[in-house]
Amino acid sequence: MPELPEVERGREIAERLCRGRRVERVHCPPDEIGLAGCSAAAVRRALRGATVTGVGRHGKQLWFELDRRPWVLVHFGMTGAFHGRDGGPRPKWCRLDLAFADGRHLAFCDPRRFGRIGLADEPRAEPPVSRLGFDPLLEMPSPAAFARLVERRRGNVKRLLLDQTFAAGVGNWIADEVLYQSKIDPRRDVEDLDDAEVRAMRRTLGTIVRTAVAAKSVSSRFPRTWLFHRRWGKDAEARTHDGRPLVHETVAGRTTAWVPDVQR
DNA sequence: CTCAGTGTTCAGTG
DNA sequence: TCACTGAACACTGA
């Protein structure tokens, strides 16, 4: 479930393994669907022989910064992840594999193939990155600026949180966690939120994202009070840490876990 | 065998 | 123009 914290974890793995190193060999099989408007050959050409100067991220978008253009963008889709290794066979579901002179490899694995690989000269200045809203880890708006962004929106609050042009990197579980910790019913209309609720959303969003990133996205290290640990599966008996019943219901087209006792 | 789920985009409806 | 729904995408695992 790659949301912002999982993608940031991928960025850290890639940066530690690749930064300052020259790409010796590239494996990138032809793949019409998973390549966003470019050929596998173009991806190989962009990477082979280039030195990785850094790995950037905004929301769920991640890119390799190279010592020449274009750069290479990766979106993890629903099941994408990076795996480092010292050698040996490529892992299963590998769609991109970079080999470095020191024998290390970085593989992008994506079993369900919803991930995307693309090229861009200036990722931040062009779509899809340029269309994204603020990244809650890198640039959380002030309370006043956050309130102004919310004021301009319509529809229910779950939809707002999932909208990548509002807050980049929020996915289904973070949206539900924010609403639970902010005590807001996911079906509520954005226009009906009061100032305290909007402030609570901003605060919980920041805390949840920073906490998950600090835990390196290892969910067993997330606070035990989080809804996260209770939301998976649609167990009719599911309860929060303090014994309140969960419900699962489709809101904004997505399975939503929430707690009617707590969220108003 | 069926089907939920995960992120995103797109076509269609109101 | 906007809000919203449902389908499509590919695949695993229950």
How would you describe the overall organization of this protein?
The protein is an alpha+beta fold and 264 residues long. It has 2 domains: 4-131, Alpha-Beta Barrel (N-terminal domain of MutM-like DNA repair proteins); 143-258, Helicase, Ruva Protein, domain 3 (Orthogonal Bundle), CATH 1.10.8. It is built from 6 helices and 10 strands; from the N terminus they run H-E-H-E-E-E-E-E-E-E-H-H-H-H-E-E. The chain has helices spanning 4-18, 40-47, 143-151, 157-162, 172-182, 195-214, and strands at residues 23-27, 52-58, 61-66, 71-75, 81-85, 94-100, 105-109, 116-120, 247-251, 254-258. The strands form 3 sheets. A 4-stranded antiparallel sheet has the order 1-6-7-5, covered by helices on one side. Helix 1 runs parallel beside helix 6 (195-214) and helix 5 (172-182) packs across helix 6. The chain binds a DNA duplex (14 and 14 nucleotides) through residues 1-3, 33-34, 60, 75-79, 93, 110-116, 128, 154-155, 159, 162, 164, 171-172, 234, 252-255.
Secondary structure layout:
Layout: H1 4-18, E1 23-27, H2 40-47, E2 52-58, E3 61-66, E4 71-75, E5 81-85, E6 94-100, E7 105-109, E8 116-120, H3 143-151, H4 157-162, H5 172-182, H6 195-214, E9 247-251, E10 254-258
Antiparallel strand pairs: 1-6, 2-3, 3-4, 4-8, 5-7, 6-7, 9-10
The chain binds a DNA duplex (14 and 14 nucleotides) through residues 1-3, 33-34, 60, 75-79, 93, 110-116, 128, 154-155, 159, 162, 164, 171-172, 234, 252-255.
